[in-house]
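Q: I have 312 residues here and want to know how they pack in 3D. Can you give me a structure?
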Amino acid sequence: MRIQYLVILTLASAMLVFASGCKQKPDEPGALAEVGGEQITRGDLLYEMKRHPLATPATDRQAAAMEELLRRKRMVAAARQHGLAERPEVRRAIDGILIKLLIEQELQPQLDEIAVSDNEVAEAYEATREKFAEPASKTLAILFRKSREADVVRRREHREALVRAVDEVRVAGIPAAQGFGKISVRNSEHQASRYRGGLVEPLVEGMAYRDFQAALIEASKNLQPGEFTEVIERPEGLYVARLAGARAARQRPLESVRTKIRRDLLAAREAQVREDFHRQLLAEFPAAVREMPAELEPSADAEVRRLLSASQ
């Protein structure tokens, strides 16, 4: 199917390249030859000559280029005779080439001119300072032992195990930033954190948390870095937490977000240029949809699927 698509694209390209000469007569200025109703213009010849090695004498290059053009024109004429030019996939391929050229010629130069100055970045930063304000947050390390509330014996054993783990951390002198260190591996059933010293994702001030995270925030609200909570009982089991670190609210400086602001401004301006471009096309070329089929016949639907698969 890939090969079929490339054949269609090649055919479409050939038809597009030579389409400009189709309405000329052989004796009109610029029309050098005709093959099966397909015209060869002076521009076609000059363009084809550029494709041949410059070391070749000009007369030989011209002859070779003309021969190649004639060969291609015969193929295009035959393709038209077989109705290939009217096939939907060919028409779409030609449309795609024209759209690409239009964008390169008319839209891309406008996009290339878009720029954002340092002053504009600074003004945008001041106008949206709240976007770059980071609320206070705290990082906790946890140990978790799973048990049912009704299992009193197991809960008592887990409580004692968590208390021993806290004492072990104190004796070992594990720094606050490391949480529970390697002790969490054998004392926690919280899979996401047990191999990371029990460290969980930072909890951000002002965010709404549920379940065990809300309980951790409440239990740790008065802790200093390195301190531990009491054992926390939850329906799913027991927790103990350690405050590994805390960060006060802060405003991210301009230099740390300058690139992002510039990128966002450029994207917004590019989007506006694209929208204006399409609005202009809409004004210049209004659509006239005359009829939409209520539904496709089964055979037509199968043909659509075939065409779609052939273009993939």
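Q: Anything worth noting?
A: The first helix runs from residue 2 to 19. The chain has two domains: 2-113, 136-248.
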